[in-house]
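ok here's Mediator of RNA polymerase II transcription subunit 30:
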Amino acid sequence: MTALPGAGPRIPGLHSQTAAPVPPQQPPSALREITCVTLCKVGQETVQDIVARTMDIFHLLRATQLPNGVTQNHVVYQERYNKLQEHLRQLTLLFKKLRLLYDKCGEMCGVSDVSVTELIPFVGEEPFRPSDLPNVGGLANKECQEILKKLHQKNHELKHIMDQLRNLIWDINSMLAMRN
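and the structure:
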């Protein structure tokens, strides 16, 4: 009994060696629908990539020496320039991707653009008051007031700690200046 070259063991149910390959089935997790949460996760990863690329650019720029009249290898400068251009191109693509994710997430979640003044209270502006909320019930309003009171107390504590740190740094700098 002679074996044909390239013929291996027969697989039951497979009649021809030239049968088309069966495409692998995708796991159920790959078939799930895209939600605002998944878009936000992808956006978070994109922001992390942007930060990493930016750090790479800064490291590349830090390692680059200015010519200062010294003749250096032109090939090295050209290589670094090309690497910098590639990083900037990738950074541009990442920002475009982030913008698309932001727009799609806003479209899916129904969130309109919020102005900066709504997010960050400026000095002299009236801060948020629980009375600005529609009257949902006494319990929700009471909880909101308690949370705002705790927030005010924590802010006061943080300000006190920052003042202490500022004074400590001032003292350290004064002592270092006197020592020199």
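+1. The longest helix spans residues 138-179.
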